[in-house]
Amino acid sequence: SVLNPLLSQQRIAVLEPTIRRLCVELLAPLIGQGECDICEDFSSRLPVHVFAEWMRIPNDMAAPLRQAGRAFHVAVQSNIDSVVKETSLALYAMARELIALRKREPMDPQVDPTAALLAARHDGEALPEELIIGCVRQVLVVGIIAPTVLIGSIGVHLSRDQALQQQLRANPQLIPAALEEFLRLYTPYRGFARTANRDVHIHGCPIRAGEPIALNYASANRDAAVFERPDEFILNRPNISQSLAFGRGPHHCPGMALARLELTVALQELLARTSRIEVSGPITATRMPELGVLSVRMRFTPPAPKAGEPASPVWAG
Prior knowledge:
two-stranded antiparallel sheet
């Protein structure tokens, strides 16, 4: 309830020029060198830059956040417990530092997430300090991992379907609809773990109290009873609104407007500044709870310059 107003589609829309600038700045050297790890060099960096802008993090704090956020993601995926703990504690320290800064230099709660949490009241009382710290720390990382793996998955898919790649490049107005289908096929979070608090039977399967359960709810997005040819990419699916990529009900993703804008602009700029993208190295997949590409090298072919036009066209949609 505190953060949702700051993540509304109307509030997020003002970030589009900034997100586009960040995409251009990150992509230009990568396309210039002709090849890169799209996850390591682009998709893991863009979300941290975007979140730093949305959270109004000063430049001197943004650089360490970018390093710690990426290191945390890699450590979690590589199952390096010591580094997970180290980077997690670093992110908590950054959250405390940002909260202390907002206390020293207050900002408008209507535009600043940290200030909004500090100004929030529950039954007339301020939120507990540790709750605010935990929330800020979670916000710092929650929007980093999903775009990283989804952009990697989209890159692999487009490499394998050059006809679709060229269709989207020639008709960029189709990109938002294509993104919804990519989200259905490659939902970044496949599920979460929970522990049963009582004995229960679900569809004939006994689950005892205290047993851990893996909830793979993202499999619903490939349910043949709901989606025709569920494992295929179908542009403009008539029932794409039934996708659970961002959850549903009270647990829907509050940052879905920001995610959609960030991913749409990234795909627009990537396709506008290339004539072909293709996988050029091995693909490393993520581990639970994400589902997607953790690392993949991709080759970029720049578009042929036209007479009177710059060599690297800028998206002007």
